[in-house]
Design goal:
Length: about 210
C-alpha cells in the first residue's frame, strides 16, 4: 500500500497518508491510457468544417458552352466540381468525432495514470489548501517558493478561492475531484491533492465489489 507524507502549505510534514492499492498502486496499462486520451481529445473536436457541394453552389443555371463543336468535354453547369468556383467533391461535412468509451475503461485508465504518478514520486498530498482570500500572488508563493513546483495539476473539492486565484497562473490548473481526467493527469508534471480529494478519488475509483 503506497504511503505518502502529508504536508502543509509550508512543506512541513504533519503526518502520513496511506493510499489504496487498488487505486494508486495498480499495474500501469499504457495502451488503455493511450486509448482513453485519444477518445477524450477526439471528443473536444468541433467537427464543423464544411465545404459546399455542387447542389449548394450559387448559379449554374445556364449551360456554359454549346454541346458540340468546341473541342471541350460536354458540360451542363458551372457548379460542377470540374469548373473553377464549382462545388467540391467529397469535401468535409459537419460531423461528430466523439468515441464511445465505457465507464470502466475510463476508471481503469485513471487508476493507471494515478499509479504512474505515484511510482514516479510526482504526487504531493496537502493537509488542506486554505486561502483566506482570492490572491494569485499568495498561491504563486505556495507553489513556487514553498513547494518548488512547476506545471502542476491541483485537485480539491469545491474551493472557490483556490480556483479563482489560479486562473492567471500559467502551467497551473485546478480541478474539482469530479473533473479528474486522464489527459490532465498525464499532461501535468506534478499532481497536488488535498487529503479530502484523495478520499473522494478513492471512493470514485475503487473497483466495484
Amino acid at each position: 500500500m503506497p504511503t505518502l507524507d502529508l504536508i502543509n502549505q509550508d512543506k512541513k510534514k504533519v503526518g502520513t497518508i496511506e493510499l489504496r492499492d487498488d487505486v494508486f498502486g495498480v499495474a500501469v496499462n499504457v495502451a488503455l491510457v493511450h486509448q482513453v486520451i485519444k477518445a477524450q481529445l477526439a471528443g473536444r473536436r468541433q467537427g464543423n468544417a464544411k465545404t459546399k457541394t455542387k447542389s449548394e453552389i450559387r448559379g449554374g443555371g445556364r449551360k456554359p458552352f454549346k454541346q458540340k463543336g468546341t473541342g471541350n468535354a460536354r458540360s451542363g453547369s458551372t457548379r460542377s466540381p470540374l469548373h473553377v468556383g464549382g462545388g467540391q467533391s467529397f469535401g468535409p461535412q459537419p460531423r461528430c468525432y466523439e468515441q464511445s468509451t465505457p465507464k470502466e475503461m475510463m476508471r481503469g485508465a485513471l487508476r493507471s495514470a494515478l499509479s504512474d504518478r505515484v511510482k514516479a514520486k510526482r504526487v504531493i498530498v496537502l493537509e488542506d489548501f486554505d486561502l483566506k482570500a482570492i490572491k494569485t500572488s499568495f498561491l504563486v508563493d505556495v507553489l513556487k517558493k514553498n513547494l518548488d513546483l512547476d506545471k502542476v495539476l491541483i485537485l480539491d473539492d469545491e474551493n472557490k478561492n483556490l480556483e479563482l486565484s489560479s486562473r492567471n497562473i500559467p502551467r497551473v490548473k485546478v480541478l474539482r475531484t469530479e473533473g479528474l481526467n486522464v489527459y490532465d493527469v498525464v499532461r501535468f508534471g506534478w499532481l497536488v491533492m488535498t487529503k479530502r480529494a484523495v478520499k473522494a478519488v478513492e471512493t470514485r475509483l475503487a473497483p466495484q465489489a
